[in-house]
Specification:
This protein is of the alpha+beta class. Helices cover about 15% and strands about 30% of the residues.
Length: about 575
Amino acid sequence: MNNISIATFKCGSKSCELYGLWQYDYGQILRIQDLGLPPAVEIHFSLTEKGGTSVTRVGTTKDGVTDVVIPDSLLENDDASQDYWIYAFVYLTDDNSGSTEYKIEMKVKSRPRPEAIDRPEDQELFREAIAAVNEAADRAENAVNNLNADVLEKVTRPDTAEVGQALVVKKIDETGKPITFEAQDMVEVPEWAQKPEKPTYTAKEVGALPDDTKIPTKVSELENDSGYLTEHQDISGKLDAEKLPEAIDTALAEAKESGAFDGSDGAPGEKGEPGETTYIENPYDDTELKSEIASKITAPENPEVGKVFRIKTVNEDGTFVGEWADGGVANLDVQIAGKSIVQDGVAEIPLCTDSNTPGLISIDAYVTNGGLYRANTKTGLVRINKATDDMISKRSNDYCPIVPTRLDYAVKVAMCDGKGAVWTAEEQAAARERMGIDEWEDILDVTLEEESTFSADFEHEYKKLYIYIDQSGVEGDKCSTIYFNPYSYIDNDGRKINSFSVYEQTSINFCNIGSIWESSGKVTTRISFAGNPQKNSTGNMTAWIKFWDTSNHNKEGVGAPFKGIYESVTVFKAGTRIVIKGVRA
C-alpha cells in the first residue's frame, strides 16, 4: 500500500498540484522533493486557499526529502459530499522572521463515509515534534555502540542501577575526562535549603563553641600530652629526603635483577623448554583510546567527583555535548508558563480554574451539556459537539455551536418557525431594502424649464420601471404623440441601442401618459395609458399593451435590466414633468 503523495516543483515555481487522495484515507504522507528545506520545517494545512484557519504540522527533512503527515481531520472534512482541495503552505522561519515560501494544492476525491472509521487521531503533532531528536539519538546510540573494545574496557560503568538513580562521576583522567561512573540515589534537597534566605542558629543549638571561647594561637599554649618532639634531635646517618627517590629506584632495580618481581614464564621455546620470563613495565597504552573518546563526547569543563553528567545537545553525526547538572538531579525543575510546579520533589499539574491560570481542563461527562467531548478515549482526542436540529428548533442549548453543515437549517428555523422575536416593521423594511425585494424607489422627478428632448442614464439597473409624463403644466399646445422608452443594451462601441421603439397618442382631455415596464428572462413587457389632468381616471381611454419576446424580436437587450432612458424623439414643451420609479434588478 502506497500512502505517500509526492509534490514536485518545476524549476522556479512556487506552487504545484497533486492528485490521488481519497476522502477518509488516513496516515497519508506528503513528500516534498528538491526544495532543500531545513531539517525541521512548519507546514500549514487548510481547506481554504484564502481566509479561515490552518492546521500546523512539522515536516522532517532527510537527504533533501521532506516528509509530513497530512492531518486526518482534513481528509475526513466533516463528511463533505463533493470533491475538494487541501492546501499546504511551506512556512520557513529564523530567529527574526517567518514567511510562506511554497504552496501545494492536493485534490481529494469524495466518497461515501465508511461504516466505522478506525484511524489514529491526529498524533502527528507529537510524533513529528520529536522525530528529529529521536533520529539524532539513534545515531548517537549507534556511535557509542561502535566504539572499540578498548573504550568499553576503559570507561567503567556501574554494575547495577535502579530506575530513578543518577549517574555520578567517581573518577576522571589526567585530561579531565570522566572515566568511572557510579549509580547513586538522587539527593533530595531540603525545602529550607532551596529558599533564598537561610535560617540562622546559635552556637549552642549546633553544638559549637561559644563566641567568647579563646582559641590557642601558639604551640606553647597547648598541652603536649602525646610527647611530641619540641627540641632539635640529631638525625645524622638518616636518609636525606632529597635522596629518597634515588634510593627507591636502586632498590627496585636490585629486586628486578634478583628475579623477585619477575612475571610469569613465556611460551615454550623450540625444544619445549620454558621461555624467558617477562617483565611487565606498562600493560597498555591508552593514549589512542582517550583521543577517540574525546572525539565522541564533548565533556564540560571543571569536572568534580560527585557531579551529575547529562547530555545537553546531540549533533547530526551522532556525537554529543555534555554538561554538569548543577545541584544534582534533585535540582531539576518543571515549569508551566515560566512558573515552577514542583513541590517536595513532585511536579503536580494544576487545574485551570480561572482565565489567567494555565493548567488542565475537564470535559463534561454528558456530551449534550457542553461544547467539547472525547472523540477517542484511546488517544484523548477532543472535538466540538455540534448543535442538533432538535436543539436548534427548541433553542435548548447554550454551549453547542452551530456548524457549517447545519447553518442553512438554523437560518430557515430562525426566519420561518415563528418561535423567535417578531421583527418590527422598521426591521422588515430594512431587510427588504437590503435584499431588494420589489421595493419601488424614486429614480428621478424633473420639470423641464425649456423645450428639449429627454434622456437619462440610471445609477443602478432595474427590472421594473414606472414612467409618468405630466403635461398639465404646459401652457398652450401639448404633445399629441410621445416617443419615450428605456434602453437595456450598449454595444461594443459604447452606443446605446433603442430596442423598444414605441409611441403613444394623447388628446386635449387626456394629455398625460403613464406606463409600467418589466424586463426579465427573455421577455420585455410594457403597459401604458393616457390620463386626464386629474390623474385619477383614464376615462374611456383604452390601455395599450406591448411586449417584446426573443423568440420573435431578435434584438439585444430584450429581457435584460433597464439601464436608462433612450434619447426621446419627442421635443417636450417647457413645463412638462417627468417622473420615473423602479425596482432594482
